[in-house]
């Protein structure tokens, strides 16, 4: 599956329930500048499974949970992929298994606005990014990616698949091996809240 946006999967009351549930959960304290809370979708009795499993199964069919988290970020993530092979390049709590079937990332925004943006590229962890650069710049604006100053010369020449502006109720799904980057929401003084889960 290439990246896809599934709109209005969750209702406002679902989002409220998620925020209320995780408000009372402890921070795992596993990343700087990020509140990480355990996401226990692998337990059928858990809140997250009860709320989300049927909705995700309608989109993906049978699927196997690998790992995930509830996150509140005050700093944006730079260019990276979430494949087990490359994810060690950024500080992270994620501990990926080796099984690959669907091999997808699922983002569930809990806030929205044009300041919250995820860009997915037509580039994979199995490829050399230097060989994927195009001769002309893409449509990204440097001021939106100030946290990627060292990556910018390459970032603005990579081929883009999706520029997803977050909307509450959506699910945004992409191949875990695809490179992606967050826009710099922090320059507006905002905190990014979301669920991220990975299926094997």
Based on the coordinates given, report the CATH architecture.
Sandwich
- Class from secondary-structure proportions: alpha+beta
Instruction: Please tally the helical runs, counting DSSP H or I stretches of 4 or more residues.
Output: 3
Low-confidence stretches: 87-95
Distance between the termini: 13 Å
Number of domain units: 1
Strand % is 25-35%
**CATH fold call:** Jelly Rolls
DSSP strand tally: 9
CATH class designation: Mainly Beta
Average of pLDDT = 92
Task: Give the overall shape.
Answer: globular
Placed side by side, the strands forming the largest sheet appear as 1-7-4-9-3-2
What's the Cα radius of gyration? 16 Å
SSE sequence, one letter per element: EHEHEEEHEEEE
Describe this structure in words.
The chain has helices at 12-23, 47-60, 152-155; strands at residues 4-6, 34-38, 65-73, 104-109, 117-124, 160-165, 171-175, 178-182, 192-199. The strands form two sheets. A six-stranded antiparallel β-sheet has the order 1-7-4-9-3-2, with no helix packed on it. Strands 6-5-8 form a three-stranded antiparallel β-sheet, with no helix packed on it. Helix content is 15%, strand content 28%. With 200 residues, the protein is α+β, with helices and mostly antiparallel strands. Mean pLDDT is 92; it is low at 87-95. The radius of gyration is 16 Å and the shape is globular. The chain has a single domain, classed as Sandwich (Jelly Rolls), CATH 2.60.120. It is built from three helices and nine strands. The longest helix has 14 residues, at 47-60.
């Amino acid at each position: 599956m290439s990246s896809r946006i599934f709109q209005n999967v969750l209702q406002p009351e679902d989002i409220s329930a998620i925020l209320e549930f995780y408000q009372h959960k402890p921070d795992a304290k596993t990343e700087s500048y990020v509140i990480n809370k355990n996401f226990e979708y692998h337990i059928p009795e858990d809140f997250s499974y009860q709320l989300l499993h049927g909705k995700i199964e309608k989109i993906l069919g049978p699927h196997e949970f690998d790992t995930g988290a509830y996150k509140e970020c005050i700093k944006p993530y730079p260019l990276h992929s979430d494949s087990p092979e490359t994810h060690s390049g950024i500080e992270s709590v994620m501990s990926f298994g080796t099984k690959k079937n669907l091999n997808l990332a699922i983002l569930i925004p809990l806030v929205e606005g044009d300041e919250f943006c995820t860009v997915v590229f037509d580039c994979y962890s199995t490829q050399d990014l230097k060989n994927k650069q195009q001769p002309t710049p893409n449509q990204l604006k440097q001021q939106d990616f100030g946290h990627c100053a060292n990556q910018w010369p390459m970032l603005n020449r990579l081929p883009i698949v999706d520029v997803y502006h977050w909307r509450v109720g959506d699910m945004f799904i992409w191949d875990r091996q695809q490179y992606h980057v967050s826009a710099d929401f922090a320059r507006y003084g905002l905190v990014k809240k979301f669920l991220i889960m990975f299926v094997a």
